[in-house]
Design goal:
D-Maltodextrin-Binding Protein, domain 2; two-stranded antiparallel ribbon; alpha/beta; Arc Repressor Mutant, subunit A; seven-stranded mixed sheet; 312 residues; 10 helices; 3 domains
Length: 312
């Protein structure tokens, strides 16, 4: 058994067929089939069941995949460490962020990061979680910060930060800034919702269907900056993570209300390929983003402690 066979096995497992794995690895299909056959003989068990539509892993194959994924990750990590040791922290970094993160903390984090690592070229892509996760899986992005990513073989994920949701409203609504509200007791609201691509949409719709949020009218705006600008000039509201607005609390152009009866939290996930461990440059940026998100949650908690209306 060698690394070439292990890479072949992982490619077939994740691709679901010999043909697709051969195309991804740019090798001939007979050669790949022979590698799998030799690997099965080497480990002494059958790893795949063959069928007309491709292959399906056996119980042994399922178990073996987890071990192979760790092996390839360790090999790539060792190689990455040596590259960084030889050249220092440099190279290109492709990062995916959901709009909440770009609006909330990116401007705070990125200038200092670029100054600290002048030899790293950064490309930031803003999109919704589903698109960003797909681009991580395809290798177009080194990592992404998303919400509720789909489970997928070969994808590593962990919760980076958790924070509450708040109601953001235009001044025409007549609500009192920073006064806690109970959605169940509020009259019907005019609500701005993101598109169905955004996981936040599903969270809010569950509350609407349960009758916990009564709605007078809904408008769908598929963009965070556009939503906030519309809210500033209207009597509509939105339910958003506190990162979106906590740094703008004192500007006076919107009203922010803590939600007493909406206990759902908003989770940010870090996702990257298991076989592509984060580089030193990526790890540094992740650490800075994680710290900024934690400071946001702490700042919101501090606001609530210092606000008499919120403390009552």
């Amino acid at each position: 058994m060698d690394l070439k066979q292990i890479r072949a096995f992982v490619a077939v497992f994740e691709g679901g067929s010999i043909n697709s794995a051969a195309a991804n690895l740019r090798v001939a299909q007979p050669s790949l089939s022979l590698q799998i056959k030799n690997l099965e003989e080497s480990v002494g068990v059958k790893l795949f069941e063959r069928h007309a539509r491709g292959v399906h892993p056996t119980a042994a194959g399922e178990r073996f995949y987890d071990d192979c994924r760790r092996i390839l990750g360790d090999v790539e990590n060792a190689a990455q460490n040596m590259r960084e040791f030889a050249s220092g922290v440099s190279g290109a970094l492709d990062v995916g962020l959901i709009p909440t993160v770009t609006k909330g903390v990116l401007a705070e984090v990125l200038p200092a990061y670029m100054e600290a690592l002048p030899n790293v070229d950064v490309r930031v892509v803003e999109a919704y979680s589903g698109s960003l996760t797909s681009w991580v899986m395809s290798g177009e992005l080194d990592f992404a910060l998303v919400t509720e990513p789909p489970r997928h073989d070969g994808l590593e994920m962990r919760v980076l930060s958790t924070e509450p949701l708040a109601m953001i409203s235009g001044r025409k609504t007549g609500l009192i800034h920073l006064e806690p509200v109970q959605l169940q007791r509020m009259p019907p609201v005019k609500l701005v919702l993101p598109s169905s691509q955004h996981s936040l949409r599903a969270i809010i719709e569950r509350y609407i269907k349960l009758g916990d949020i009564k709605v007078e009218r809904i408008i769908e705006i598929d963009g965070l900056f556009g939503s906030l600008e519309f809210i500033r000039h209207s009597d509509f509201s939105a339910i958003l993570p506190v990162t979106t607005i906590v740094r703008d609390l004192d500007q006076g152009d919107v009203i922010v209300n803590p939600l007493e009866d909406m206990q759902t939290t908003f989770e940010y996930f870090l996702v990257h390929q298991t076989q592509r461990p984060l580089s030193a440059a990526a790890r540094e940026l992740v650490t800075r983003l994680e710290e900024a998100l934690r400071h946001t949650a702490e700042a919101w908690a501090d606001v609530l402690r210092k606000t008499p209306l919120a403390a009552e």
